[in-house]
């Protein structure tokens, strides 16, 4: 295996790779990306709970105060002690959600096309759009956030790779209109959007073909 990072939709059988790595390389050094890959939950938990574990400081992005603020609050980049409060914040968002008409969202995404790239048209958008519509986000704000999801995912990287930090600042403003006040709530929403987008990108190749009417 050349490197440990890949989308599941790019690999014919990603689970076979995970199984093989757990057996032959449970802790694998990926020289291409400069990271260690750990292939079992137990090993990951042992490492993260260790008193010797070192979480590097988050990079500071120049001229992007909102990006720095959001990144500092994201649960996936936080220490264990912050996870409980982050989960409670997420529950605040779930309590605010209203039921969404999924067939209507699908119709919006698919339109009347007779041939559709399922991953591009639906998988990358439906989970994010579902979250946004559940919070009552307008069509214009939803479209803006959807278009800029690839930039939002850069917040999860441990190094400063933000290509357009000003866009992150602009996303913070519309997001703040639909959730209770507080940096933690807004950051939690953005974290959920990133997870939803990542889940769609990793869609199985079985769903990645062209859909014909």
Describe this structure in words.
- The protein has 213 residues and is mainly α.
- It has 2 domains: 42 residues, no CATH class; 148 residues, no CATH class.
- The strands form 2 sheets. Strands 1-2 form a two-stranded antiparallel sheet. Strands 3-4 form a two-stranded antiparallel ribbon.
- Helix 3 crosses helix 10 and helix 7 runs antiparallel to helix 11.
- The relative contact order is 0.15.
- The C terminus is likely disordered.
- GO terms for molecular function: heme binding; iron ion binding; monooxygenase activity; oxidoreductase activity, acting on paired donors, with incorporation or reduction of molecular oxygen.
- This is Cytochrome P450.
- It comes from Chitinophaga rupis.
In short:
With 213 residues, the chain is mainly α. The chain is built from eleven helices and four strands; from the N terminus they run αββααααβααααααβ.
What count of structural domains?
2
Number of strands: 4
- Give the DSSP E fraction (strand runs of 2 or more residues): 5-15%
Shape, principal axes of CA atoms: globular
Oligomeric category: single chain
Distance between the termini: 38 Å
The main sheet comes to:
2 strands, antiparallel
Derived from helix and strand composition plus strand pairing, the structural class reads mainly alpha
Mean pLDDT: 75
> How many helical stretches?
11
Provide the spatial order of strands within the biggest beta sheet: 1-2
The unreliable regions are 203-213
Radius of gyration: 19 Å
Give the proportion of residues in helices.
Answer: 40-55%
What series of H and E elements makes up the topology? Answer: HEEHHHHEHHHHHHE
InterPro entries: Cyt_P450_sf
GO molecular function, one term: oxidoreductase activity, acting on paired donors, with incorporation or reduction of molecular oxygen
Organism: Chitinophaga rupis
Protein name: Cytochrome P450
């Amino acid at each position: 295996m050349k490197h440990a990072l890949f989308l599941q939709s790019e690999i014919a059988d990603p689970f076979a790779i995970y199984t093989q790595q757990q057996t032959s390389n449970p802790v694998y050094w990926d020289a291409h990306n400069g990271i260690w890959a750990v292939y079992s939950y137990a090993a990951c938990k042992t490492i993260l709970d260790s008193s010797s574990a070192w979480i590097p400081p988050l990079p500071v992005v120049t001229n992007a105060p909102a990006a720095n603020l959001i990144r500092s609050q994201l649960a996936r980049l936080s220490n264990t002690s912050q996870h409980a409060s982050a989960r409670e914040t997420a529950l605040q968002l779930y309590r605010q959600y209203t039921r969404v008409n999924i067939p209507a969202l699908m119709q919006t995404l698919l339109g009347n096309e007779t041939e559709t790239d399922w991953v591009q048209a639906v998988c990358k958008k439906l989970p994010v759009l579902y979250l946004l519509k559940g919070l009552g986000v307008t069509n214009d704000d939803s479209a803006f956030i959807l278009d800029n999801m690839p930039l939002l995912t850069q917040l999860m990287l441990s190094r400063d790779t933000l290509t357009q930090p000003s866009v992150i600042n602009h996303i913070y403003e519309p997001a703040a209109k639909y959730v209770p006040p507080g940096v933690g709530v807004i950051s939690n929403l953005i974290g959920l959007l990133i997870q939803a987008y990542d889940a769609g990108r990793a869609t199985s190749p079985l769903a990645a073909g062209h859909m014909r009417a």
